Amino acid sequence: xxxxxxxxxxxxxxxxxxxxxxxxxxxxxxxxxxxxxxxxxxxxxxxxxxxxxxxxxxxxxxxxxxxxxxxxxxxxxxxxxxxxxxxxxxxxxxxxxxxxxxxxxxxxxxxxxxxxxxxxxxxxxxxxxxxxxxxxxxxxxxxxxxxxxxxxxxxxxxxxxxxxxxxxxxxxxxxxxxxxxxxxxxxxxxxxxxxxxxxxxxxxxxxxxxxxxxxxxxxxxxxxxxxxxxxxxxxxxxxxxxxxxxxx
Amino acid sequence: xxxxxxxxxxxxxxxxxxxxxxxxxxxxxxxxxxxxxxxxxxxxxxxxxxxxxxxxxxxxxxxxxxxxxxxxxxxxxxxxxxxxxxxxxxxxxxxxxxxxxxxxxxxxxxxxxxxxxxxxxxxxxxxxxxxxxxxxxxxxxxxxxxxxxxxxxxxxxxxxxxxxxxxxxxxxxxxxxxxxxxxxxxxxxxxxxxxxxxxxxxxxxxxxxxxxxxxxxxxxxxxxxxxxxxxxxxxxxxxxxxxxxxxxxxxxxxxxxxxxxxxxxxxxxxxxxxxxxxxxxxxxxxxxxxxxxxxxxxxxxxxxxxxxxxxxxxxxxxxxxxxxxxxxxxxxxxxxxxxxxxxxxxxxxxxxxxxxxxxxxxxxxxxxxxxxxxxxxxxxxxxxxxxxxxxxxxxxxxxxxxxxxxxxxxxxxxxxxxxxxxxxxxxxxxxxxxxxxxxxxxx
Lengths: 248, 443
Description:
The complex is a heterodimer of chains A (248) and B (443). The model of chain A is unreliable at 21-30 and 42-144 (pLDDT under 50). Chain A contains 8 helices and 4 strands. In chain A, strand 2 and strand 3 form a beta hairpin. With 248 residues, chain A is of the alpha+beta class. In chain A, strands 3-2-4 form a 3-stranded antiparallel beta sheet. Chain A is 35% helix and 10% strand. Chain B has 443 residues and is mainly beta. Chain B has 5 helices and 32 strands. Chain B has helices at residues 2-17, 19-22, 54-73, 98-102, 151-167, and strands at residues 30-34, 42-45, 50-51, 77-79, 108-116, 122-130, 135-136, 142-146, 176-183, 190-197, 204-205, 213-218, 224-229, 236-241, 246-249, 256-262, 268-275, 278-285, 291-293, 301-306, 312-317, 324-329, 336-337, 344-350, 357-363, 366-372, 380-385, 387-393, 399-405, 413-418, 425-426, 432-438. In chain B, helix 3 (54-73) crosses helix 5. The model of chain B is unreliable at 11-26 (pLDDT under 50). The interface between A and B is large, with 118 and 126 residues. Strand 4 of chain A pairs parallel with strand 1 (30-34) of chain B.
């Protein structure tokens, strides 16, 4: 009998708790925070003319925030983004008109003849007659024949500042990108960079890695290399390989 | 003239006959392996979006401000100071003068336009340019439409689109954070569930302060959270639907339930049930309400978290003498210990990317947040303080948020850190805050 009483009492207690506490816990709710899907209109946007292009220009009165309500704890309000003025010494590369690649280029054909047979000057720089022992260009380790190891190292050091390495991607070991480009005598880009690594366009990480490699070659131009050996560094292949950085 | 033609013909013949010869020793391409790069943020420019009247101009300024701040906070991008911009755009279809942006060292340029349509809805379009290449970057230009009160979400959506196009990974800007808002003295602490945008804007409270609430966890598929509440005087797992404000207890159990977390499909919840001092991990199907016991061990088994493919579960167990991380199959079979470092390992969370598990480690009287591969290799501690606890992943698996206390008397606050251990930042919240949980990307 006593057990029954206790049981009934406890049941009522639980029931009362449920009635009192549960609505209580929800009480202070405002309207539900319904998430409205943002409508994405995918496709080329070039057809869309600005609607108000024909509208009369409106006098520019200072406008209040259309939101009205102050935004609670907007971090941007507290931390203005201040950026130093870019370093004026890192000058942008002069943009030179690109030669049309597929048309017959008489100049370069003529140059080819000069170099291949008849231009004694070019021949002389290649054989370097007065530098039989001392100043002969030496091949860098694992590199081509045209630049010395020191020059290759300088080139690598320069690229450190221009190449955003993808070592924070999900699967970085496979993001190795080979590009080829040609230079003019003044070290500016003549053609390329052309990506030699096969890129599957659906592989987003590899697409971005190849774009970063191309951007690196562009933003590091012009390349200051020894003038007398222009023939040898006119065409360059870079293999951007993040694996060594990962191992560090 | 004849001479020139002869030379050209000779050259052509030379090219045709002797391509290998033409690229013989003197012409061989130099091959260089580039093995060192940098991790500096990409400098970008995002001028205020163009507006055609007063309200849309204000909207355009706000959109660009939020986008610049989103990208800057990721530490993968660095906004060039807008005060230095030279070119003014009159339309989103204006061609950029790339030289003007190269001078500023901007590598990417975003140009956008906001229109408020006759029906009151806003429509925002934008283009992204590669400044060094001097051309538009394809595959990102799109438009978003919504009511003007959703302008911040449009800005976040654009940030996500830019982030994805420039990094190759999904963004995480159009997301929200649920956390426990804490007010009052240590002895009379009021804890409420609160929700805010990922950047700290738009905070709202989900529960009143009557009952103690802990460990909110977001569903990976819906605007739903599961959490622990003392609303009935003892810890119970609750479900809360943000869209409808509906709140319910997760089933009736003969003991205490805690440490809930959703499965990757959002269809079930794993949690701990403690009966007579023994804690075991259970899974409950949210539709059928059937429950299944996954562990069976006299030790404490708790804090389960699914792998993103749903095939495995990481959890904490002290079956080896101290709390350590274990990985088992989703059925509960083959539990295997993966943590072997110094200290106690708790609150494991599997990354949405699948490659890592975040955890809290307690060692030498301090708490830190770290990551380890699911096979137990590559453990790294990303943060360390008097108390760093309760990691949660951004939906793209790149950023971890947690809560930190500097001293025993300090109040908890939310912090975030990159997977690399860089970019440690305090998250601004209206009060003290603990137990953050990151939402999936909003629709």
